[in-house]
Amino acid sequence: MNTNFDIENFILDFSNSCQKKQKKVFSKNEVVTTYIKNRNQLCILLDGNADLVRYDLNGNRTIVEHFSKNALFGEVFYTITTNNELLVEAKSNCTVLFYSYDDIFHKCRNNCKFHQTLSENLPQLILNKVTDLNMRIELLTKRSTRDKLLGYFSLLSTRKLSTSFELPFSLTDLADYLSVDRSAMMRELKLLKEDGFIEKNGNRITLLYK
Amino acid sequence: MNTNFDIENFILDFSNSCQKKQKKVFSKNEVVTTYIKNRNQLCILLDGNADLVRYDLNGNRTIVEHFSKNALFGEVFYTITTNNELLVEAKSNCTVLFYSYDDIFHKCRNNCKFHQTLSENLPQLILNKVTDLNMRIELLTKRSTRDKLLGYFSLLSTRKLSTSFELPFSLTDLADYLSVDRSAMMRELKLLKEDGFIEKNGNRITLLYK
DNA sequence: TATTTTCCGTTGCAAAAGCAACACATTATG
DNA sequence: CATAATGTGTTGCTTTTGCAACGGAAAATA
After folding, report:
1. Which residues on adjacent β-strands are paired with residue A42?
2. With contact defined as beta carbons under 8 Å apart, do A105 and B123 qualify?
3. Which of A57, A164, B63, B146 gives 20 to 30 Å between its CA and that of B97?
4. Which 3 state secondary structure label does DSSP give A27?
5. pTM, full prediction
């Protein structure tokens, strides 16, 4: 549907051509960045997996977003309030590019090809993010843990073009992502197995319905 | 924080200059648009209020987004699946501009000033939407009805710069927006009053804590 | 103005989800 | 390899939420 601009090649070709970015490598469990008001950072995950995690005042942990290769993140996408701490945590070894959104928006003085291409394609990149967020909202508005699980599984199944797939999360993290209690979720997973909706071997799920 | 481009003046100045748009007026409860795959419509709400509503297979109704003056909506922001019907319903009399996103993206042949300005400012407009969606996700990930209500109230209070404000929804619709049962929400509102967190007169809420 | 429709407020009861605790498996790490 | 840390799977109990139903208020409509 969307004019899917090839971020992959684009990044490979141009990631070294701009002076105003920083490239950093992180190892598992390191904090990639903390969201800070008014900084307007824009980051691109070149490689690896990372989670945007929120800790609220009660100490609850929520996985706000899960990022894989080529994901965009940073303060640009977020209104930071004082009630939460927002961190990006590396879930595996990661390579990340850091930009200032203001630089991108106003183009960098070198007028480098990267910035040119990026600013042309930025609307599309951000739109992709919007559709991701809308899918997330669709999941979160489901009224029961069962529906959240089935909704998420069907989404993964569509993405992988297969009724069988690995979860990109540990089950503990999946619960944080769906915003439900882990033990209640485990109970529901058991019921889904018993009721013949799914098969489950470790982190591999197979959908049986329809 | 964001270079806040003045959509209001922009729309006033240019809304009549482009050939490729349609302007329509709707009265309360009319369906403004239905989301259709591959159409890539982009709409701007010039005036009034409208809700993006989803009906799922179980007949559950969810208010996915609430739009007021100058809101952007349309299929561009959404991956449409077959499991849901997505409608925009006018909550009051509305005036709406309809564009094709493809026209905006590729600029219209007349090369009109509207399209020029719009495509320059589109990233910013979409970013505003992203931050809205992230706020919504923050609300929906709260674990209890109480926290959802308090979170939503504090958000409104921040926006209005006052501890006292009118809800933009009926209470029935608020429940659909927070994705909770209406009667359970009413019960929780009563408890919030009893516990001294809020005052409530009809749709006017006053925050008492802190 | 009379009447219909929608919304508000409430409640008892049933179902779902959260909490806490534990044993065991698996994976990191010294 | 031994040990620590993290993740999985399970359960009893408590709390929260959803469901269904109803009367009355408010708003829309004839």
Report:
1. A99
2. yes
3. B63
4. coil
5. 0.87
CA distance B67 to B29: 14
Q: Does B157 touch chain A (CB under 8 A)?
A: no
Q: Is the CB of B144 under 7 A from strand D?
A: yes
Q: H or E segment at A61?
A: strand A61-67
Q: Which residue is nearest to nucleotide D8 (CA to C1')?
A: A171
B171 contact to strand C (CB, 7 A limit) = yes
User: CA of A57 to nearest chain B CA: how many angstroms apart?
Assistant: 11
Please indicate if any CB of chain B lies within 8 Å of the CB of A127. yes
Q: What is the 3-state secondary structure (H, E, C) of chain B?
A: CCCCCCHHHHHHHHCCCCCCCEEEEECCCCEEEECCCCCCEEEEEEECCEEEEEECCCCCEEEEEEECCCCEECHHHCCCCCCCEEEEEECCCEEEEEEEHHHHHHCCCCCCHHHHHHHHHHHHHHHHHHHHHHHHHHHHCCCCHHHHHHHHHHHHHHHHCCCEEECCCCHHHHHHHHCCCHHHHHHHHHHHHHCCCEEEECCEEEECCC
Share of chain A above pLDDT 90, in %: 42
- The 3-class secondary structure across A133-154, one letter per residue, is HHHHHHHHCCCCHHHHHHHHHH
Q: What is the pLDDT of residues A99-139, one digit of tens each?
A: 887 777 666 666 667 667 777 777 777 888 888 899 999 99
CA distance A122 to A42: 11
Contacts with A126 from chain B: Cβ below 8 Å:
123, 126-127, 130
Q: Does A62 touch chain B (CB under 8 A)?
A: yes
